[in-house]
Specification:
single chain; about 270 residues; alpha+beta; N-terminal domain of MutM-like DNA repair proteins; Helicase, Ruva Protein, domain 3; 4-stranded antiparallel beta sheet; binds zinc ion; glycosidase; 8-oxo-7,8-dihydroguanine DNA N-glycosylase activity; zinc-finger; metal-binding
Length: about 270
């Protein structure tokens, strides 16, 4: 599944091709993805100029004066910018045509992605009540400490809560907790301020590194320039249950926490 780094990589790849371009038409090859595609996409979007390509959590917003198409890649979605006459492939569901002669083409075999509409000046329901962006200054150790007081949930579950911070999925939570030396099972409300400072720094470093590498997880993710966006990442904990801890050599533990597979070192992470 595309995680925050893949979505940010997609945003950075798309922006130079979309920003400043006018939408000349929209082709929907089916009426829905995960949800029905709203009529505004074919009615209001054509004629609008894309001012900015923005990301919030794992959503992409193509901002225009009238409103913004709101895209999510779901489990298997990908976006490419192509010459308008490029032959279709299976699962090419949507084309947004641009005055450059190119199209933004949305492909999604499993159709857990979405294409919705956020009217100008409004915040879509899906974007309300989201926590801060992990790479923003609003997210730091002091914030995590304050937010976690009296929280009895395991710290890993707390860190993956989108109301606490967006975009820290299972892989990145496991890796950040390993880097910070915090047991994923520890109660969120019983982690000290100092250790939350280390955890916030680890989240920023790991996500930043993954973005620099161009995303990590989806094998068939195609970056906007056509190159595979999947890069083998050197994961320390995630997916390595039973293997030696990279730090102390003892076998890594594996168990389910909050119904998510979790791997950690019971010696290095307390
Ligand atoms: Zn260890």
């Amino acid at each position: 599944m595309p995680e925050l780094p893949e979505v940010e990589t997609t945003r950075r790849g798309l922006a130079p091709h979309l920003e400043g371009r006018r939408v000349t038409g929209v082709v929907l090859r089916r009426p829905d993805l995960r949800w029905p595609i709203p009529y505004d996409i074919v009615d209001t979007l054509p004629g609008q100029r894309i001012e900015q390509v923005r990301r919030r959590a794992k959503y992409l917003l193509l901002e225009t004066a009238a409103g913004s198409p709101l895209l999510h890649l779901g489990m298997s979605g990908s976006l490419r910018v192509l010459p308008a006459d490029t032959p279709l492939r299976a699962h090419d569901h949507v084309d947004i045509a641009l005055d450059s002669g190119q199209v933004l083409r949305f492909n999604d075999p499993r159709r857990f992605g979405c294409l919705l509409w956020q009217p100008a000046g409004q915040t879509h329901d899906l974007l309300r009540n989201l926590g801060p962006e992990p790479l923003s200054d609003d997210f730091d150790g002091d914030y995590l400490f304050a937010r976690s007081r009296k929280r009895g949930a395991p710290v890993k579950t707390f860190l993956m809560d989108q109301k606490v911070v967006v975009g820290v999925g299972n892989i990145y939570a496991a890796e950040a907790l390993f880097a910070a030396g915090i047991s994923p099972l520890r109660e969120a409300g019983r982690v000290s301020r100092e250790r939350y400072v280390a955890l916030a720094q680890a989240v920023k470093a790991i996500l930043g590194h993954a973005i620099d590498r161009g995303g990590t997880t989806l094998r068939d993710f195609i970056s906007p320039d056509g190159a595979p966006g999947y890069f083998e990442q050197e994961l320390s904990a995630y997916g390595r249950g039973g293997e030696p801890c990279p730090r102390c050599g003892r076998p890594l533990k594996q168990a389910s926490i909050g119904q998510r597979a979790s791997v950690w070192c019971a010696h290095c992470q307390r």
